[in-house]
Amino acid sequence: MNTVLAVVAYPRLDDVDRRWIESVRSACDPQASRIVAHFTLVFPADASASVVAAELSAVARETKPIAFTIRRTLA
């Protein structure tokens, strides 16, 4: 059975940064309450959960973590 799936990553945030980001999201994004601050890696698509999980597992086994810092943002 297919369902609409997305793949997201949740950043590690200091509490003050998380509160600021969520305040901006609340003011600017009508869907902000649906999910906390995140990076979308794969946008929602109608797909089989088992197929997506298998593909993600295969990619994750071959991909090193990516460390980065965001120093500036604009809303």
Would you mind describing this structure in some detail?
- It is a single chain.
- The protein has 75 residues and is of the alpha+beta class.
- It contains two helices and two strands, in the order E-H-E-H.
- It has helices spanning 15-28, 49-62; strands spanning 2-9, 39-48.
- The chain has a two-stranded antiparallel ribbon with strand order 1-2.
- The longest helix is centred in the N-terminal third of the chain and has 14 residues, at 15-28.
- The termini are far apart.
Report the end-to-end length measured between terminal Cα atoms.
38 Å
The helix/strand order is EHEH
Q: What's the overall geometry?
A: flat
Q: Residue share in helices?
A: 25-40%
- List how many beta strands DSSP finds: 2
Strand content: 15-25%
Layout of secondary structure:
Layout: E1 2-9, H1 15-28, E2 39-48, H2 49-62
Question: Tags for this entry?
Answer:
single chain, alpha+beta, 2 helices, two-stranded antiparallel ribbon, 75 residues
Structure at a glance:
The chain is an alpha+beta fold and 75 residues long.
